[in-house]
């Protein structure tokens, strides 16, 4: 599709026939991450102006889903997994294992392209961070976050998420 290479184009600018043809011509990969881990990463990167994680979470909750930043907006509203049939869904925390498989399927050499951290190191680090950050939140904030990310938690297997009931 030549017009895709001339300027940045939103998928919503095309009609249904064009969208179906475009999406059918690509291998679609969705990278997903536990929403609570996304919040932690956003906070640690300084994308919120709050002095504490708890006040940052309150800002997120106060912004609402429709006015929220892409950094913490629910994935379901960003990626439309119910409308787009992704060929692969890659879970953060299993990147090395899943990317190796994906690169192999694409016919690419995986060795030098994979991240150096092992999946278990990533999982352990985020488990520890999640415990620390989750303990800072009030019971009401925890409940509101679970509701905020309800559809993400239903759509993807984040069974060990602190936000899962």
From TrEMBL:
InterPro entries: Carb_sulfotrans_8-10, Sulfotransferase
GO MF annotations, alphabetized: sulfotransferase activity
GO CC field: Golgi membrane
Primary location: Golgi
E.C. number(s) listed in UniProt: 2.8.2.-
Membrane topology: Single-pass type II membrane protein
Example GO biological process: carbohydrate biosynthetic process
Cellular location(s): Golgi apparatus membrane
One Pfam family of this chain: Sulfotransfer_2
Keyword Transferase appears in the UniProt entry: yes
UniProt entry tagged with the keyword Cytoplasm: no
Domain of life according to the entry: Eukaryota
Enzyme class (EC, first level): transferase
Keywords, in A-Z order: Carbohydrate metabolism, Glycoprotein, Golgi apparatus, Membrane, Signal-anchor, Transferase, Transmembrane, Transmembrane helix
Recorded family membership: Belongs to the sulfotransferase 2 family.
UniProt-recorded name of the protein: Carbohydrate sulfotransferase
The organism of origin for this protein: Acrocephalus arundinaceus
């Amino acid at each position: 599709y030549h017009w895709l290479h001339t300027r940045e184009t939103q998928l919503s600018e095309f009609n249904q026939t064009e969208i179906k043809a475009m999406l059918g011509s690509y291998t679609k990969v969705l990278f997903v991450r536990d929403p609570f881990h996304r919040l932690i990463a956003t906070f640690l990167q300084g994308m919120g102006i709050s002095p504490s994680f708890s006040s940052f979470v309150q800002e997120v909750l106060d912004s609402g889903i429709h006015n929220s930043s892409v950094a913490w907006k629910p994935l379901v509203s960003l990626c439309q997994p119910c409308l787009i049939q992704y060929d692969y869904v890659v879970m953060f925390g299993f990147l090395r294992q899943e990317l190796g498989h994906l690169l192999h399927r694409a016919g690419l050499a995986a060795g030098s392209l994979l991240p150096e951290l092992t999946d278990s190191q990533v999982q352990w680090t985020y488990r520890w961070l999640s415990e620390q950050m989750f303990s800072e939140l009030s019971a009401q904030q925890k409940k509101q976050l679970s509701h905020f990310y309800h559809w993400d938690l239903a759509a993807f297997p984040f069974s060990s998420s602190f936000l899962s009931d």
